[in-house]
Amino acid sequence: MPTYSPPLRDMQFVMHEVLKVTDDLKLMPQHVDTDADTINAILEEGGKFASEVAFPLNISGDAEGCTLDKTTHEVTAPKGFKQAYAQYVQGGWAALSCDPAYGGQGLPFVVNQCFYEMLNSANQAWTMYPGLSHGAYEALHAHGTDAQKALYLPKLTSGEWTGSMCLTEPHCGTDLGLLRTKAEPLADGTYSLTGNKIFISAGEHDLAANIVHLVLARLPDAPVGSKGISLFAVPKFHAAADGTLGARNGIYCGGLEHKMGIHGNSTAQMVLDGAIGTLVGQPNKGLAAMFVMMNAARLGVGNQSLGLTEVAYQNALAYAKDRIQMRSLSGTKAKDKPADPIIVHPDVRKMLLTAKAYAEGGRALGIFCGVLLDKEHSHPDEKVRADSGEMLALLTPIVKAFITDNGHISTNACMQVFGGHGFIKEWGMEQYVRDNRINMIYEGTNTIQSLDLLGRKILGNNGATLKKFGRLVAALVEEEGVNEKMGEFITPIAILGDQVTKLTTEVGFKGFQNADEVGAAAVDYLRVAGHLVFGYFWARMAQVALREIAAGNTDQFYLAKVQTARFYFAKLFPETATLMRTIRSGSKALMDTDAALA
Ligand SMILES: Cc1cc2nc3c(=O)[nH]c(=O)nc-3n(C[C@H](O)[C@H](O)[C@H](O)COP(=O)(O)OP(=O)(O)OC[C@H]3O[C@@H](n4cnc5c(N)ncnc54)[C@H](O)[C@@H]3O)c2cc1C
What we know:
The protein has helices spanning 8-18, 21-25, 36-54, 58-64, 81-90, 109-143, 146-158, 286-322, 346-378, 382-417, 420-423, 429-437, 446-458, 464-480, 487-513, 516-550, 556-572, 575-584, 588-591; strands at 67-69, 74-76, 161-166, 182-185, 191-201, 210-217, 230-235, 237-239, 245-248, 251-256, 267-280. It is of the alpha+beta class and 598 residues long. The strands form three sheets. Strands 3, 4, 5, 6, 7, 10 and 11 form a seven-stranded mixed beta sheet that branches. The chain has a two-stranded antiparallel ribbon with strand order 1-2. A two-stranded antiparallel sheet has the order 8-9. Helix 8 runs parallel beside helix 10 (382-417), helix 9 (346-378) runs antiparallel to helix 10 and helix 9 (346-378) packs across helix 16. Flavin-adenine dinucleotide binds at residues 165-168, 173-174, 199-201, 259, 267, 438, 441-445, 447-448, 451, 519.
């Protein structure tokens, strides 16, 4: 059976020693009193909830899955999920970073980010039920009418109701411009929605009294394509203005998907049969309003894989110390045993360190993005708000795609550490591989993320935001360029920074002549950019750790950090050289292949 221990020390290291998040928070009136002790105390309690309440339901939830009663259309989540959710609500966890105007605790997003990492490690399938509510809350907070805010936000904040996002239809996932669900205006200002949605996570369940579905649909006179999509709030139960529940609305679950992983989360086919909804935001501008939810969800999906990477690593590490098999190539290490523990073998170490380096790098990036989100929402200086939003937009596809791809690599590596036992359910490792796989697909596939990064966020603004990230790298290079001890961490990112600038110009130029060149480069490009970002954070973590060591601190934590940074730059970062070669090979080997693909 797997175990999980919340990585509080590592979170504190990134928050308080590397990024010094409270320095930023102090500048925001709303967060001026949120000091390090407060953050640590909340996360300690949050870690207990994750490891003691959500984690014990992970394997049982996977085995049992969700059940649909076809006569009532009600879905029952696995045993214990409802009780755990009640504890979550009672503990006030749903309200952590919500607006006090709606009953929230108003704590920084970055605290919620770390809390959710732990929940995802503990039980991704369970975590998706409350997780989707956050995106629905954000979209309604940003674009809802006063009446919608008054009705929905207090209920989402308390956790009494949950949210869902209803975009996908059988014939359209990536290309939402094709969607067909119709919304007919009614005399009272509401809308009657008809259509079919599929793959709706937490679309139906028994955890909460009501579900607020955010649904994309078309008005009768809507232009074709993505410019004709509107957003609607459609509750499972009608509700009076004071939140009192009324009759069932015409939106219900027609079936549940049988799937590879996240079995404990219901993936619902939703039928809208004259469901009554209210318009969120402007007519035909629904995609823009939904993007608030989608961006929150993309950061959330990266956090899902971060959580899975961490828990898989913890278990693989413990197993590698315990399992004895063969002798070390360089001579016996455990003389008292008939064989050495497998952790002596170089490749086992490589697998473990891969997961560790990707988890800790992902955590640094995730926390950095959490602070950007806080600055975007709460910083008093308008320019800081705008710059933070721009940087977050650049990093969002990297969080979503790079961390989830790394989660795939890492959970597989950790399963491999267990040999055949990793493939056997009892150890829990194969579940992490299965659960992680969807993270590369939903919320816009990782290919779509890479097109968003390269096409829209980088080439679309002539690399302006990328240059801003480049300036962060340049400042670190400037600061540490003459420090011999930092050379092994600084030189690679300085070189890669220059290479990425050149590469971007080349791809942009080729893309002008043939847009398929951008499509051919994008996925590899995102990985290169991901390493530039991770390399920057690994260099910053090494910088802090080396300073502590130089000051005489003998805490092994710092030595471990330097060793992991060394591993990252020696064994993972260099894949950028191959990726840059494949990017430069262009689109021809893909597009001139009609005979091969005939
Ligand atoms: C378990 C699960 C939970 C989900 N939860 C939700 C949810 O809560 N709400 C919701 O609305 N949806 C949800 N989805 C749907 C999910 O977001 C979509 O499956 C995803 O966006 C991809 O859409 P698709 O499956 O239609 O694939 P398609 O869009 O048909 O794509 C097929 C392939 O073509 C590629 N492709 C498509 N267009 C391009 C392009 N322009 N360039 C390059 N490659 C391209 C894709 O990357 C992909 O590899 C969920 C799906 C699953 C499986």
